[in-house]
């Protein structure tokens, strides 16, 4: 009896894993799914039938370009949500992902891309209309168009090329990209993508994009950098004319709590030291920010910043009243 229950539990977990894979990508071949699940293609076919029995519309294509894909459902799958509950859930997720709900953006977007797969067509217009009535006020993340967010999320999920107009060098140019990941900072949404015209990885702000579209042309994913790290380093350092690197005598956890993620990258050295990487148009600003952290530090790069430390130190000393300078002599 115990063995039978264990087999059932293993099958259930495998079927749920299969469902998650089908929600992550537009199309999977049978051998790909078999390899990911550690089973035979025959077992994959059986598990697909189990999903269909539960109400999930899994389509299968034969021949070159064929495979398994999760279609839009005519009925909601067994989430036990009626139409009103589904609409309320999706509108709330759109508000959390596209607006400024701190900490909720990426999780909301992941949930949206999963629900988008099985949202019945009859509900799409109503969800879009209600989402347009949701606004926010106050600080937080710069709002973006929820439809742009979803269009790019689908392109990342389905591995299809995307295009958009983007300002660069005082002009607006059309960009063709292979979208990889959407990244939410404390202030904005970014897309990490491979720029086909520049033949390199780039990050783009969603709030600066216009005329966003996704093609049906699929691409084979390239080896990619870590999305969050790449975008953070770009926002905090690469976009500026000058970059600086410091060794700070405090733990990485302590310094991260003092610096916004968009202002600097903090890397752990050991339990009591960390590296801080930041950029600016004027390195004096970076130097003063590190000074105001209140920890001992050393300049690692660039070498000319060491001389700036000496100049600023002398300037600070000269700011003392004359009587204090005479006492020190």
From TrEMBL:
<keyword id="KW-0804">Transcription</keyword>
<dbReference type="Pfam" id="PF13280">
    <property type="entry name" value="WYL"/>
</dbReference>
<dbReference type="InterPro" id="IPR036388">
    <property type="entry name" value="WH-like_DNA-bd_sf"/>
</dbReference>
<protein>
    <submittedName>
        <fullName>YafY family protein</fullName>
    </submittedName>
</protein>
<keyword id="KW-0805">Transcription regulation</keyword>
<dbReference type="InterPro" id="IPR051534">
    <property type="entry name" value="CBASS_pafABC_assoc_protein"/>
</dbReference>
<dbReference type="InterPro" id="IPR001034">
    <property type="entry name" value="DeoR_HTH"/>
</dbReference>
<keyword id="KW-0238">DNA-binding</keyword>
<dbReference type="InterPro" id="IPR013196">
    <property type="entry name" value="HTH_11"/>
</dbReference>
<dbReference type="Pfam" id="PF25583">
    <property type="entry name" value="WCX"/>
</dbReference>
<dbReference type="Pfam" id="PF08279">
    <property type="entry name" value="HTH_11"/>
</dbReference>
<feature type="domain" description="HTH deoR-type">
    <location>
        <begin position="11"/>
        <end position="66"/>
    </location>
</feature>
<dbReference type="InterPro" id="IPR057727">
    <property type="entry name" value="WCX_dom"/>
</dbReference>
<dbReference type="InterPro" id="IPR028349">
    <property type="entry name" value="PafC-like"/>
</dbReference>
<dbReference type="InterPro" id="IPR018356">
    <property type="entry name" value="Tscrpt_reg_HTH_DeoR_CS"/>
</dbReference>
<dbReference type="InterPro" id="IPR026881">
    <property type="entry name" value="WYL_dom"/>
</dbReference>
<dbReference type="InterPro" id="IPR036390">
    <property type="entry name" value="WH_DNA-bd_sf"/>
</dbReference>
């Amino acid at each position: 009896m115990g063995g039978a229950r264990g087999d059932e539990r293993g099958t259930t977990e495998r079927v749920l894993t299969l469902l998650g894979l089908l929600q992550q990508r537009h199309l999977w071949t049978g051998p790909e799914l078999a390899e990911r699940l550690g089973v035979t293609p025959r077992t994959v076919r059986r598990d697909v039938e189990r999903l269909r029995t539960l109400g999930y519309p899994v389509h299968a294509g034969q021949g070159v370009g064929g495979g398994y894909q999760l279609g839009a459902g005519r009925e909601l799958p067994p989430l036990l949500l009626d139409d009103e509950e589904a609409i309320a859930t999706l509108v709330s997720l759109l508000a959390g992902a596209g607006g400024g709900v701190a900490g909720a953006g990426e999780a909301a977007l992941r949930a949206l891309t999963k629900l988008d797969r099985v949202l019945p067509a009859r509900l799409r217009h109503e969800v879009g209309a209600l989402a347009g009535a949701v606004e926010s006020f106050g600080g937080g993340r710069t709002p973006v168009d929820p439809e742009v967010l979803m269009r790019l999320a689908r392109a990342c999920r389905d591995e299809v090329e995307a295009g958009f107009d983007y300002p660069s060098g005082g002009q607006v140019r059309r960009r063709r990209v292979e979208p990889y990941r959407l990244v939410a900072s404390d202030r904005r949404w970014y897309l990490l993508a491979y720029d086909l015209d520049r033949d390199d990885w780039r990050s783009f702000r969603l709030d600066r994009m216009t005329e966003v579209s996704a093609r049906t042309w699929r691409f084979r994913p390239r080896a990619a950098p870590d999305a969050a790290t790449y975008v953070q380093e770009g926002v905090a350092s690469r976009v500026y004319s000058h970059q600086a690197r410091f060794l700070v005598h405090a733990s990485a956890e302590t310094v991260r709590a003092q610096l916004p993620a968009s202002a600097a990258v903090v890397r752990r050295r050991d339990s009591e030291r960390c590296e801080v990487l930041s950029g600016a148009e004027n390195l004096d600003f970076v130097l003063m920010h590190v000074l105001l952290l209140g920890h001992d530090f050393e300049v690692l790069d660039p070498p000319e910043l060491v001389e700036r430390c000496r100049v600023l130190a002398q300037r600070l000393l000269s700011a003392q009243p004359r009587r204090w300078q005479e006492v020190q002599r």
